[in-house]
Amino acid sequence: MIRPSGRIDLMVSIMTSLQQHQVTGLIPAPRESALKRFFAFPNPVNEYAARSTAAIVVVLSLLTLITSQGWGLVVIAIGFWLRLAFGPRISPAGILSVKVIAPKIGPAKLVPGPPKRFAQGIGVVISTAATIFFFTGLAGVAWLLTLVLIVAAGLESILGVCLGCLIFGRLQHWGVIPASVCEACNNVGKRRP
After folding, report:
1. How many percent of the chain have pLDDT more than 70?
2. 64-94, pLDDT tens digit by residue?
């Protein structure tokens, strides 16, 4: 008969063996669902690519504001939706930033992905609201929201200050966003660019 402590030792031994075999490939690791892979966002993220994308948002927003063309708001909102849902792999601005601009800046500077995705979510809300306001006859509100996008994306692109990331850090500090969402960025709100 096996003593209770012996059973625990046996279970630990079995679990350790299974983990080692999983690492060496004898036992396949659990796979993510196809849906989760489809909507994947990179983690970590190349800071230079994020800043380049923000610069593209600034340029598009300025052009839209200067020309007063509502379709520009639609383009900006679609870009944010694509980056939020799929990361940079489908967004034209994201692809340009990751594949062309960021490599010319230098070696990747990796930062946690979840705060950047959160920032894209804020961009979705602001750009979608601006689009809705414009096409419902409240162009002044739309242009004010576009200015907010310009300021936020300008801070990110020029100074490396990600307002969405700072908000993410505060929310994580207050316990609104669980620490498990981003273990690497529990103190992201306290970091300097």
Report:
1. 79
2. 999 999 999 999 999 999 999 999 989 999 9
Side-chain half-sphere exposure of 66, counting CA atoms within 13 A: 7
Q: Which tokens go with 63?
A: 């052009």
The whole-angstrom separation of Cα 142 and Cα 131 is 7
43 pLDDT more than 70: yes
Strand partners, 83: none
Domain ranges of the chain: 1-30, 34-190
CA distance linking residue 154 with residue 146, whole number of Å: 12
How many whole angstroms separate alpha carbon 22 and alpha carbon 40?
Answer: 23
Contact call for residues 164 and 119 (beta carbons, < 8 A): yes
User: Amino acid identity of 19?
Assistant: Q
CB atoms within 10 A of CB 135: 14
3-state secondary structure at position 46:
strand
